[in-house]
Amino acid sequence: MLVRLILVLLLILFLGRAVWRLLVGVVEGASGARAGRTRVPRRGARMVRDPVCGTFVVQSRALSADSRGEVAWFCSEDCRRKWRATHA
After folding, report:
1. CA atoms within 13 A on the CB side of 35
2. SS in 3 state form for the chain?
3. How does residue 28 score in pLDDT terms, banded at 50, 70 and 90?
4. For the whole model, what pTM was predicted?
5. Residue from 57, 25, 35 nearest 74 by CA
6. What are phi and psi of 19, to 5 degrees?
7. Rounded to the nearest 5 degrees, what angle is found at the Cα of 34, between the Cα atoms of 32 and 36?
């Protein structure tokens, strides 16, 4: 009987905690505030597409190469090397 009472109390405790966390998450989501977490930037970063493998890369982190006035952006040195071999 005592074991059953302890198990019921633990179940109530876990369910109460789950409901509390759900409510806190709903309030944070509705208000847009996230305590201790980074916010989504208001302005997106410019993305460029690697012409070799098709990967999208943030332009500020991408490697570039110029051929006949055309600038191409790459995700890696390997892709840039492959592109230069065909556009030399």
Report:
1. 4
2. CHHHHHHHHHHHHHHHHHHHHHHHHHHHHHHCCCCCCCCCCCCCCCEEECCCCCCEEEHHHCEEEEECCEEEEECCHHHHHHHHHHCC
3. confident
4. 0.50
5. 57
6. -65, -40
7. 155
